[in-house]
Design a protein that fits this description.
174 residues, alpha+beta, 2,3-Dihydroxybiphenyl 1,2-Dioxygenase, domain 1, 29% strand, globular
């Protein structure tokens, strides 16, 4: 997830780089986004409100004060509730699962894209924020018309975590 302060400019930058950018989404938690969709993954450009942010978005609002950048990595899960329980047992101190949605205008009519997330405590994932996301309505989000990019990109090959203490950070991500 790339947090940005100017969502319009960020979307235009990605368009100029040859990506198809989804129409703007307005989440029920108050954040706004555009996505760059691939077959199994995506890049999310997110702008979080500065006035009274939802607790699940506070990290992103604070992050944006220092500028734009990669603020989190989302991992797919089939059940955020089960992931929460497993993470709790593993000592990762996840947040309670949170449900939210955003309306999506489709040729066949409006639908809601619905999600459930659980986030790991920032001190448990040095070098970056990590959360798990359950997509209830994948067919609403992964649309063929949003996955054919002029630049030929078909997905994310890797994500790099930068940390001052590599020896302490690496085991968390293995």
């Amino acid at each position: 997830m790339i947090v940005v302060n100017d969502l319009v400019a960020a979307a235009e930058t990605f368009r100029r780089m040859g990506f198809v950018v989804t129409p703007r989404g307005d989440h029920t938690l108050g954040s706004r986004n555009h996505c760059v969709m691939f077959g199994e993954d995506y890049i999310e450009l997110l702008m979080s409100p500065t006035d009274n942010p939802h607790p699940s978005r506070r990290h992103y609002t604070e992050f944006a004060k220092a500028g734009d950048g990669l603020a989190a990595i989302a991992l797919r899960t089939d059940s955020a509730k089960e992931a929460y329980t497993e993470l709790l047992w593993a000592g990762f101190s996840p947040t309670d699962p949170v449900d939210f949605s955003r309306p999506v205008r489709l040729p066949e009519g409006a639908r809601d894209a619905r999600f459930r997330i659980t986030q790991l405590a920032p001190d448990r994932t040095p070098g970056g924020r990590v959360f798990l996301c359950e997509h209830f309505t994948r067919e609403v989000v992964w649309r063929p018309e949003h996955q054919s990019h002029a630049n030929g990109a078909t997905g994310l090959a890797a994500v790099a975590v930068v940390a001052e203490d590599v020896a302490a950070t690496a085991p968390v991500y293995e």
